[in-house]
């Protein structure tokens, strides 16, 4: 891939077949993406931050990075459009911190959490691209 253009769907996934003819692997990735999204929502919107996340310095940021990377990676492997996945991830990074700060009494929004979230989205994209490159290199 040339660095002179933004990555697109071809750089991350092969063409997506229709939902009815979607291969079992794609269905499995779609289920994994759904599960990752549920975990992400639980982590981000629980009334109180998990105590383990606050006991170790930096663990909160790693948790944010991990849940966003997991959703992004699995959604891309499921065949969702990269622009949609990345756009949703970045928007959710910002919105989740605003919601935590304004609507959840036991939580506070942190701009550094949003940064960790966006880094997680980027990590998920990078991992998905690396997997595709690896698979292409071995075939």
Topology summary:
Elements: H1 9-12, H2 24-45, H3 51-55, H4 59-77, H5 82-103, H6 111-138
Helix pairs in contact: 2-4, 4-5, 4-6, 5-6
Number of helices: 6
Q: In angstroms, what is the radius of gyration? A: 16 Å
Q: Could you give the order of the helices and strands?
A: HHHHHH
Give the DSSP E fraction (strand runs of 2 or more residues): under 5%
> How far apart are the first and last residues' alpha carbons, in Å?
17 Å
Helix content: over 70%
The count of β-strands is: 0
Mean pLDDT: 85
Structural class: mainly alpha
How does the major sheet shape up?
Answer: none
Low-confidence stretches: none
Shape type: elongated
Protein architecture, described:
- This protein is an all-alpha fold.
- Helix content is 72%, strand content 0%.
- The protein contains 6 helices and no strands.
- The chain has helices at residues 9-12, 24-45, 51-55, 59-77, 82-103, 111-138.
Characteristic key phrases:
139 residues, 6 helices, 0% strand
Summarize the structure.
The protein has 139 residues and is mainly alpha-helical. It has helices at residues 9-12, 24-45, 51-55, 59-77, 82-103, 111-138. Helix 2 (24-45) runs antiparallel to helix 4, helix 4 runs antiparallel to helix 5 and helix 4 crosses helix 6 (111-138).
């Amino acid at each position: 891939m040339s660095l002179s253009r933004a990555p697109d769907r071809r750089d991350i996934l092969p063409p997506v077949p229709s939902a009815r003819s979607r291969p079992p692997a794609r269905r499995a990735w779609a289920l994994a993406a759904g599960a990752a999204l549920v975990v992400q929502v639980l982590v981000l919107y629980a009334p109180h931050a998990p105590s383990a996340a606050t006991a170790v310095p930096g663990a909160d940021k790693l948790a944010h990075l991990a849940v966003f990377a997991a959703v992004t990676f699995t959604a891309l492997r499921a065949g969702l459009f990269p622009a949609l996945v990345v756009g949703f991830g970045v928007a959710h990074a910002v919105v989740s911190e605003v919601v935590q700060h304004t609507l959840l009494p036991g939580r506070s929004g942190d701009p550094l959490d949003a940064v960790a979230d966006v880094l997680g989205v980027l990590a998920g994209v990078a991992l998905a691209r690396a997997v595709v490159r690896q698979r292409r290199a071995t075939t």
